[in-house]
Amino acid sequence: MKRKIIAGLIIGITAVSLLAAAVLGRGGKIDYGKPSSDSAIGVIRISGMIVSGTDSGGLFAAVAGSESVMEQLRRAARDPSIKAVVLRLNTPGGTTAASQEIALEVDRLRRAGKKVVVSMGDVAASGGYWIASRCDKIVANPGSITGSIGVIMETQDLQGLYEKLGMDPVVFKSGPHKDMGSPARDITPEEQQIFQSMVNDMYEQFVATVSDGRDLDPAQVRKLADGRVFTGSQALENGLVDELGNFYDALDIAADLAGIRGRPRVVELAPEHSLWEAVSRIKVGMPAFYPVARQPYDLLTK
């Protein structure tokens, strides 16, 4: 009985703490100082795994939805007072398609005459670097983790587990490859070639994107594109980032690129969330490379 009471108190205190953090965090804005210019810099934050859809979150991980990020980029493009955008990246990567969607909107934003600068936080790797490579400037902390230019697919072989559980999956399919990658059977040599061809195709897309965005020779990109990660300082030596600095340095660089005189207004473009959304977005002890369920076609950090 005593243990139940203690456990209940711990749960209650945790719940109250989370609720208080959410309430205090709602509407909380960074003080950027009093602006001396009417020109503005928009700030868009990409945090967590990059996937198609809208932003979502939970107690242990956040998800950056491409639709939410694209909407913010388009708002920046439509606002004549916003002369530049700083993308604050803190993501280990995500799906290929979602990264491509965001990168395409970055390209369009730049064609609209807006400067785009990346500020890397703890990590901006794989799909995060795909997006960063399309920007005017990339600013990283010396200890930021970036790179991971590569593609990975995974499936699980659960035949041994099914056998232990006494399960015998029965599959009805319209074609020989409809259950390709099923954990209930071996992958055939032909299917291995199909999967590898998909990985190779997405890899070539990644190399081409970085080569074009960073103005690097494809051969030079390939030397760096073996899936490895780099620190910010290593990335600078290899031409993957432009400068070392923090978020405020990125704001200064964006203002300079946009020709803004005086202190610009800084506009956080992320929408405000309800109390429940704020509670759901609280993250507890999320490591830099947290485990995720890897889906086919995912472009993730190795």
TrEMBL record:
Keywords: Hydrolase, Protease, Serine protease. GO terms for biological process: proteolysis. The keyword Hydrolase applies. The keyword Plastid does not apply. It holds the Pfam family Peptidase_S49. GO terms for molecular function: serine-type peptidase activity. Residues 109-260 form the Peptidase S49 domain. InterPro entries: ClpP/crotonase-like_dom_sf, Pept_S49_SppA, Peptidase_S49, S49_SppA_C. Belongs to the peptidase S49 family. This is Protease-4. It comes from Desulfoscipio geothermicus DSM 3669.
